[in-house]
Amino acid sequence: MKKIRLNDGNEMPIISFGTYQMTNLLECEEAVLNALDAGYRAIDTAQSYYNEEAVGNALSKTNIGRENIFITTKIWVSNYNYNKTIDSFMVSLKKLQVSYVDLILIHQPFGYYRESLEALKFLRSKGYIKSIGISNFYDDKLADLCLFNDDNFAPAVNQIEINPFFQRSNNINNNLKFNVVPQAWAPFAEGRNDIFNNQILTTIAKKHNKSVAQVILRWLIERNIPFVTKSINKNRILENISIFDFKLDASDLSEICNLDLNESQFFKHNEISGVELMYNLVKKRDNNK
C-alpha cells in the first residue's frame, strides 16, 4: 500500500477504510475485519460515529499487528476545550482497545477547537498520539491556525470533502502550501447527482473495464490525494482497493476535470447556513445524551 509522508515525519496509507454511518456495531466490526482482510491498513472512525467500540473489537480480533494498522479518530465539537478533550480522548482510546492512535483530528472548525488542539499536543507529548490533524477547515481558518500560533504548529492532515463534483484544486494547493496533507472524504459524494450513472464516468469506466467507483478513486490516486472510502459490502470493499492495476490517461483526466461544479455536495462550513446547521446538530446530539 502506497503511503504519504506527513509533515511530522510519520507516514499514512493513501487509502483509509471509513466507518461513517456504520451505527450497527456488529455490522461495523465485520466490515472492518473484511477491510483488513482485503488489504486496507488504515481505519477511520470518530467519536461522533458512535462506533469506536466496534472498531476496537475488530482490532482485537485481527491477526495483523497493531504497528501495521493506521488508526484515525476525531474529537467531536461537544468535547472541545482542554479538559473535555483529554477526558473524551481517553474514553476513545479505551473503546478502540489500543494504547495510542496514529492520527487524531479536530472534527469541525467551530467552537473551542484551539483549546482542544492544545490538549492534543499534550497527549502527543505523552505518547498517546502520533499525528494531529484537522477536518473541514477552509483556507482562511487553515491559514489562521498555521500562522497565528506560538509553536510553529501545522496540522499534519486536513480531511475535507473532495469528489468529481467538488474538486477543490485551489483548496488542495493552499493546504500543500502550509505542508498540510489534504485527505478526501466522500469521494463518491455519497451518490449525490447520480454520480454512479454519470455518463462521462461510466464511459471512462467501460474503457478501462472498471467500475465508476474505481475510476473516481484512481483519479484521486493520480492526484496523490489520500482518501477515505467505505462500504459494508464485502465485494465493494475489495473493489475499492483494487485500483492499482490501471491508469487514467490525459483525456480521462480532462473529462473528469469538466465535471467540477465547484460547490459542496453537502454544506459549506464557511457560510452562515453551514455554521447554523452544525450548531443545531451539536445541540440536538447534546440534548439526546
TrEMBL record:
InterPro entries cross-referenced by the UniProt entry: AKR, Aldo/ket_reductase_CS, NAD(P)_OxRdtase_dom_sf, NADP_OxRdtase_dom
Signal sequence, renumbered to the chain: none
Membership in a protein family: Belongs to the aldo/keto reductase family.
Protein name: Oxidoreductase
Annotated ranges, domain NADP-dependent oxidoreductase: 16-256
Binding site for substrate: 107
Keywords: NADP, Oxidoreductase
GO molecular function annotation: oxidoreductase activity, acting on the CH-OH group of donors, NAD or NADP as acceptor
Organism: Spiroplasma turonicum
Site feature (Lowers pKa of active site Tyr) residues: 74
This protein's record includes keyword Transcription: no
Annotated active site: 49 (proton donor)
Annotated Pfam families: Aldo_ket_red
NADP in keyword set: yes
